[in-house]
Amino acid sequence: MSDTSEPDAAGGESLFKRIGGYEAVDAAVERFYAKVIADERVRTFFMGVDMPTQIRKQRRFLAHVFGGPAPWDGKALRHAHRHMKLDEGHFAAVAGHLQATMVELGLAPELVGEVMAIAASTHDDVLDR
To answer: Suppose 5 and one of 16, 30, 104, 106 were both cysteines; which one would form an S-S bond, judging by CB atoms 3.0 to 4.6 Å apart?
Structure first.
């Protein structure tokens, strides 16, 4: 896949491109899942999950929501998470791991803020509210 991406709604470079394209998304997803799997608060949700497939899906999803070129054709967030019965603590743990990952990867604070705003926008769907 190429690292070209669509401009954002304001006509500027997409978040996907500004964070480093597929290379950055790939690195983020690998680190993110290492944190999630090590976290006793949320790791049980991934027991029995085909993690290579999950990682591929998450890479595609993040590339899409960050403004990358590939469309998302996977499940809607609400549908994908409804059966999990997640709560605020679960959401906060996963969001915290995402934020820590982005900081570790050296993203500028404003880019981390954009990533976290996108994560926050998923709250009600992920928690089925």
So the answer is: 16
Nearest CA among 57, 71, 80 for reference residue 16 = 71
Alpha-carbon span 83 to 77, nearest angstrom? 11
Give the predicted TM-score (pTM) of the model: 0.87
Phi and psi at residue 25, in whole multiples of 5°?
Answer: -60, -45
Residue 91 sits in a domain of what CATH number?
Answer: 1.10.490.10
State which residues form the domain around 96: 19-126
44-69 pLDDT, tens digit each: 999 999 999 999 999 999 999 999 99
Please give the tally of structural domains in the chain. Answer: 1
